[in-house]
Specification:
It is built from eleven helices and 14 strands. The strands form four sheets. A six-stranded mixed beta sheet has the order 8-11-12-5-13-14, with helices on both faces. The structure holds adenosine-5'-triphosphate (ATP). Adenosine-5'-triphosphate binds next to helix 3.
């Protein structure tokens, strides 16, 4: 399937010089277009190509769940959110197979954790879910909210409610955090037919969310991720999630590089964002995160496949005995 190359080609042909190259940041699909940002911005070391104006147009629909009021529900009312069947994928450039038949089912309101040795394919799986162009899907299916995710461009996937926090969030020089979030949030409001929030109203909206991730207000005036420590970047990712929302948040090692207080803050923030209607898929190496954000299911990935699924006891076993305790090879 030439999904990724089709994506890259389509973006280049359709948007040519007004597109820009940026990285795998979770906010890329929400980038707004205004006088500050509509200039072409090039981060030449990074792979994704997106168009600012188009990104705004498509960023405006379904980022809703986190910001929607919660409703009470029981297990029998749960809806299927994500169904991955026999997913195989290769590195686009080398055709090396990384995912070798991943199966996963996630219902609304569930928290799933993926663990696994370094290099087992966890981040690749997450990136394939959001349509990263480094990978080509060669088989299997991904259904998200009843739609074929593989038929959607990366931006459409975020429109459909996927959010990904990457292991290494990127900097966006020259763009302040608050402007970035305000414009992205307003783009969504425009699409929903709601009045935009001016700077003061937006500040009132975002202020309690800063508390959620225990971030100082100074961070709003700093350029996106510029000079942020590893922990601050992670908090900033969760702030973005809190502002924009998602029906499925994919969090790739949000615990890496966090001190114990920051871990508690980030976990508390994620827990605060959970509703019966949205789900979290988190990749982690450590039990400590799972003690803060309680997963419904834990999956262990090995050599591009999920080889074991269970409850928190899996993480405890791994912590005590390492991967040899459950290795299939
Ligand atoms: N774009 C790429 N180019 C080359 N190799 C890649 C690429 N993406 C993934 N790989 C390789 O695929 C394998 C799986 O990588 P991946 O990042 O998915 O592992 P992971 O389970 O997330 O590892 P970790 O726990 O160390 O983060 C690794 O051997 C990695 O080097």
């Amino acid at each position: 399937m030439a999904y990724c190359s089709a994506f890259t080609t389509a973006m280049s042909m359709a948007y040519g010089s007004s597109s820009f190259t940026t990285s795998t940041t979770s906010l890329v699909p929400y980038l707004p277009s205004n006088s500050t940002l509509s200039m072409m911005t090039t981060f030449s070391h990074l792979p994704f190509r997106f168009n600012l104006r188009r990104s705004v147009r498509i960023a405006t629909a379904s980022l809703s769940a986190v910001n929607s009021p919660s409703t009470s529900f029981s297990d029998s009312q749960k809806s299927l959110l994500l169904e991955v069947k026999d997913l195989t994928a290769v590195i686009a450039e080398t055709k090396q197979e990384i995912l070798k038949g991943v199966n996963l089912v996630v219902y609304e309101g569930e928290v799933h954790a993926i663990m696994g040795k370094n290099g087992s394919g966890k981040s690749t799986f997450a990136k394939v879910l959001v349509g990263h162009p480094d990978y080509e899907v060669t088989g299997g299916s991904i259904v998200f909210k009843g739609s074929d995710l593989l038929e959607m461009e990366p931006e459409e996937r975020s429109l459909a409610g996927l959010f990904m926090s990457f292991q290494s969030p990127v900097e966006i020089p020259g763009v302040s955090n608050i402007d970035f979030l305000n414009m992205a949030y307003n783009a969504r409001r425009r699409k929903l037919g709601l009045a935009e929030l001016g700077p003061i109203e937006f500040y009132a909206y975002i202020f309690p969310k800063l508390d959620l991730v225990n971030m100082k207000t100074d961070f709003l005036n700093r350029n996106v991720n510029e000079g942020f420590s590893g922990g601050e970047r992670k908090r900033n990712e969760i702030l973005q999630l809190a502002v924009l929302g998602a029906e499925m948040a994919i969090l790739d090692e949000i615990d890496s590089g966090l001190d114990v207080d920051a871990l508690r803050d980030v976990a508390k923030a994620v827990n605060g964002l959970l509703t019966p209607n949205n789900s979290v898929l988190m990749i982690t190496h450590y039990l400590r995160l799972l003690e803060f954000i309680k997963p419904s299911r834990i999956h262990v990935m090995e050599d591009g496949k999920i080889v074991k699924t269970g409850d928190i006891s899996i993480a405890k076993l791994l912590e005590e005995e390492g991967y040899k305790a459950i290795s299939t090879s």
